[in-house]
Amino acid sequence: MRFKNYKNSYTNDNRIYSKNEMLDMTVREIKDRAEEFIAQHRVLGLPDEDELRNSSNVIWIDEYTRDDGTKVSGHWRSLPNVGISQSGAPTGNAVSVENNESTDYEQESYDSEYDAEEFETIKAAQKYEESEEYKKQYREREKQKSIERKDPDEIAGVKRGEPKTFFEMMQQGVNPNYQGENDYDDKYTTNCTSCTVAAELVIRGFNVEAVSALIPEVIAIRPSSKSAYIDPKTDNECIPDIIYIDEIGCYEYLEKNVMEGERYELAYNTPTEGGNDEYDRVNENRAHVVLVTRNKDLGIIVYDPQTYSVYENKKAKLMLDSWFQYKKQVIFPRILRVDDKSINQKYINKIVKKADTN
Q1: Where are the beta strands (DSSP E) in 203-343?
Q2: Is 241 helix (H, G, I), strand (E, B) or coil?
Q3: What are the Cα distances from residue 213, in Å, to 103, 224, 331?
Q4: Is the pTM of this model over 0.70?
Q5: Are 39 and 10 within 8 A, CB to CB?
Q6: Alpha-carbon distance 51 to 278, whole Å?
Q7: Which of 77, 19, 14 has the alpha carbon at shortest distance from 48?
Q8: Given this model, what pLDDT does residue 265 score?
Q9: DSSP output for 270-301
């Protein structure tokens, strides 16, 4: 995917220069960095600022001063590809390990947290096998939850069938038209809010997939946003909780609060100028939402149903740390438990459609 895990072959660094940034440089600066620009151009060209802002594979670093007094201007950096994901067309494919080269800060995190022996254990765990007895017990629990949630019999013209486990949903996939983030005209690269809801509905037994493009009203980016979910006890639209990452790490919060079998949406934004408060100062073009659950054997699992990427346990921590390590770059992440919530009938037909079985 464009920009992800990029490293400049001349500097061995993951900094990405934009066309706009280069145009603002002096002739001397361009001459001094000529080899660096040439190395980037061979791989990425010179993307403009809008392209970088609209990519989830880069992060903006504010200007800062090093310990020696050197000022470093604000700039873009590539994010690492540290996850476990499906390759090729997602539907029906097995989950496989991506062996991409690590960026410097990803490797530092890896080396400091666990050794090669544990990494081999993680890779061996990716079979995601579930016994028939487990599936039977799971479906019985989900059917009981369905009654408590007041699930409808039909959504988007699709009648409710047998519930699926989280891993069965992953194998099926809900965004079959996704062509990768380098396809900039493809609206299936900006439909994360639809994908998370579609994935939850597949688990509930509805054979649906996500519609194209961003549906901003279905994820609570701000407390005033609409929600795809309703509290079955109060019939009110659900507002997610804020994770205060200055007080506790995002992964640490999940470890403490997410119980086995529960399912959550996890969303974040980067800030922008203006706005009356912290909730208004967000850049909705750089927002994303994923799913979180806990598995007895694999621990915390973060799954992106838009791109079919899945991160478990320590991999989940690395991914979340890469999201939030520059804390000034995100508005407080928000989390909402969804497996115990009702579906908001006002918006659901905007969010999903009957799955294409061809």
Answers
A1: 208-210, 229-230, 241-242, 263-270, 283-295, 299-304, 309-312, 331-337, 342-343
A2: strand
A3: 30, 21, 22
A4: no
A5: yes
A6: 25
A7: 19
A8: 92
A9: E--S--SSTTTS-EEEEEEEEEEEEETTTEEE
Strand pairing category for 241-242 and 229-230? unpaired
Place of tokens 């690269």: 189
Q: Are 205 and 161 in contact (CB under 8 A)?
A: yes
State the residue for tokens 């959550």: 264
Looking at residue 168, the DSSP 8-state letter turns out to be H
Q: How many Cβ atoms from other residues are within 10 Å of residue 231's Cβ?
A: 14
Distances from the Cα of 123 to the Cαs of 71, 115, 331, in angstroms?
41, 13, 33
Other CB atoms within a 10 A radius of the CB of residue 310 amount to 26
What is the residue type of 290? V
For all residues of the chain together, what is the average pLDDT? 75
- Can you read off the two tokens belonging to residue 190? 């900006």
Q: How far apart, in whole angstroms, are the C-alpha atoms of residue 294 and residue 278?
A: 30
Alpha carbons 269 and 244: distance in angstroms, whole number: 14
- Tens-place pLDDT, residues 8-55: 888 888 889 998 888 888 888 888 888 888 888 888 888 988 888 888
To which H or E segment does residue 324 belong? helix 314-324
